[in-house]
Design brief:
Keywords: Heme, Iron, Metal-binding, Monooxygenase, Oxidoreductase. The protein is mainly α and 382 residues long. Helices cover 67% and strands 2% of the residues. It folds into two domains: 3-104, no CATH class; 138-372, Cytochrome p450 (Orthogonal Bundle), CATH 1.10.630. It binds protoporphyrin IX containing FE (HEM).
Length: 382
């Protein structure tokens, strides 16, 4: 290549970059109707504002949505990254979740970021596989399954584990970490719906919760991939197998091994007794003819993720709020006493006040904040 050709190529390249940058910054600026929206610069988008607000992300997003006339904000990070639409506008939520649902699939970047942890589980899949998992999972939420679940699993976990643990602490004036207790409670419950397996984490002495810790680690590192100011840093770390990515790899492989052992046991159980009266999700998937262990593992991991932190976060905030509002606590107690003669599943049905106070608590402290406050969210059965 001659010198003139080289100079000409460089000039063309520079002009193209200039046009791209000017165009993209113009289109970015014009797509933001909110005067308080974070500044978006060529190439780096709003990375400066994202970095500045990294420790108050949820509050920052809520403030942005509230200050937007359309209750909707579009945020850009690096120029190669997708735009993020954050909305608190009911019409937009309806458009995304209902009328144009098919247009709002989980994107390939998000799928890649979650793949090491969730594989092709319900939270990370689109199309027919999503539909299939959704249909089979929805059986878990039929009145019959819920009743059975509450009457067997939850009631036993409550009467034999949660209440004795709380009573023992009250009798000895011991201080408990309620969040930890409720996470154990939720984990025992969700493992029993998902696998029909009891990890027995809510026992006196509060045993080391190895699987739950590994689960937390995988959840934290995977969501960190989204929240990082430099969106592709995780890929470099993954390639080099260092730091958090190395830990994620180890955690995912421990989780999968754990799930696979349970799947093997369940398969043996089902082959010995095909008429097993079991309501757990794993048995349902295996009985539907799906025996591919990787696929079934993915499904089960997504389900644990769906049910564990959500329930425990909701309960932790609820009890904290009750402790701050004694009038509400009195009303809830009154309602519980009134219903205490009814069978366990029936008693909750008429607890209007308790139900309303739980809803209010979840409105104030959403258990899945970045899904419930702003981002595109898909409907949960719960
Ligand atoms: C207070 C409790 C709960 C809250 C606040 C909650 C919230 C949510 C939210 C916001 C989503 C949408 C996530 C997204 O689109 O990315 C979701 C999805 C889901 N949740 Fe829940 N959830 C709760 C309890 C549960 C429980 C106990 C289970 C299972 C036993 C469960 C199973 C699921 C499943 C399977 C999905 C995926 C649905 C789909 O993609 O079609 N959730 N949940």
């Amino acid at each position: 290549m001659s010198m003139t050709e080289l100079v000409a190529s460089i000039a063309i390249l520079l002009v193209s970059i200039f046009i791209f940058v000017t165009k993209s910054s113009k289109s970015r600026a014009s797509s933001i109707p909110n005067p308080k929206a974070p500044k978006s610069y060529p190439l780096i988008g709003s990375s400066v504002a994202i970095f500045a607000n990294r420790n108050r992300r949820i509050q920052w997003i809520s403030d942005l949505i509230q200050s937007s006339p359309s209750a909707t904000v579009v945020i850009h990070r690096f120029f190669l990254d997708d735009s993020h639409v954050l909305t608190g506008n009911p019409a937009n939520v309806q458009h995304m979740l209902k009328t144009q649902f098919q247009n709002y699939e989980k994107g390939s970047k998000s799928r890649r970021a979650l793949f090491d942890f969730l594989g092709n589980g319900i939270f990370n899949i689109n199309g027919d596989s999503w539909k299939f998992q959704r249909q089979l999972s929805s059986h878990e939420f039929s009145t019959k399954s819920l009743r059975k679940f509450v009457e067997t699993v939850v009631d036993t976990e409550l009467s034999q584990r949660l209440i004795p643990t709380l009573s023992a602490a009250a009798a000895s004036n011991a201080v408990l970490d309620l969040q930890d207790i409720l996470q154990r409670f939720a984990f025992d419950n969700i493992c029993q719906i998902s696998f029909g397996y009891d990890p027995a984490y809510l026992l006196p002495g509060l045993p080391e919760a190895e699987f739950a810790k590994t689960f937390d680690e995988a959840t934290e590192i995977s969501s960190g991939r989204f929240n990082s100011v430099f969106p592709y840093l995780w890929k470099i770390k993954k390639f080099l197998n260092i730091g958090s990515e190395k830990r994620l790899k180890e955690a995912s492989s421990r989780l999968r091994q754990f799930a696979k052992n349970i799947i093997k046991e369940k398969k043996q159980e089902l082959s010995k007794n095909s008429s097993l009266e079991s309501v757990d999700l794993l048995s349902r998937f295996l009985s539907s003819g799906h025996s591919d262990e990787d696929f079934v593992t993915d499904i089960v991991i997504s389900f644990i993720l769906a049910g564990r932190d959500t329930t425990s976060a909701a309960l932790t905030w609820y009890f904290w709020l009750l402790s701050q509002n004694q009038e509400v606590e009195k009303e809830v107690l009154r309602e519980i006493k009134e219903q205490s003669e009814s069978p366990v599943y029936e008693e909750v049905k008429d607890m209007v006040y308790t139900h309303a106070s739980l809803c209010e608590s979840m409105r104030l402290y959403p258990p899945v904040p970045d899904r419930q406050q702003g981002c595109k969210t898909r409907r949960c059965f719960a």
